[in-house]
Design goal:
ATP binding, 3-stranded mixed β-sheet, oxidoreductase, mainly alpha
């Protein structure tokens, strides 16, 4: 079975349907996520499960996609991460993407999945470099500073 067979067509993990963001009380709004570009979107725990699954597959190979062990580990880690985020949520029920990713790293390390944590950290670092390169490529060239030439009265 391939990795995509374990995921829904929209890329979400079957155990974490996007229709059920973190359970909120009847009057409480669902949690929301602040992305790097500043946009606010609904928080979707299935994206955490997907990122974890991809990290495990990167380390253990595509055959791990069919592994019940990997599925159970991902489900448990996702629950831990979501619970930890919910405890730390601010009054506006917002999570910042960097905080979510930091919690994923911590959960992997605490679960003693060190190789997977390393792969996840390296992936984040590479994506950060890609974003920086893209930003540098789209940034307008700096306009030359105005130059003032002063000539003394004697020449």
């Amino acid at each position: 079975m391939t990795a995509t067979a374990q995921l829904h067509a929209n890329g979400s993990h079957p155990a974490y349907a996007p229709t059920t963001p973190v359970e909120a009380g009847p009057r409480e709004p669902a949690y929301r996520l602040v992305r790097r570009n500043g946009t606010v979107t609904p928080f979707d725990p299935s994206k955490i499960a997907l990122a974890l699954t991809k990290a495990f597959l990167a380390v253990e190979g595509q055959s791990a996609a069919a592994s019940r062990r990997i599925h159970d580990i991902v489900a448990g880690l996702t629950e831990q991460i979501v619970a930890g985020l919910a405890r730390r949520a601010d009054a506006g029920r917002l999570f910042h993407i960097e905080d979510v990713q930091d919690q994923v790293e911590l959960a992997l390390m605490r679960g003693e999945h060190h190789k997977v944590a390393r792969a996840y950290v390296l992936y984040r670092e590479e994506r950060s470099r890609e974003r920086a390169r893209a930003l540098a490529a789209t940034a307008p060239a700096a306009a030359p500073a105005s130059v003032l030439h002063v000539t003394a009265a004697d020449g």
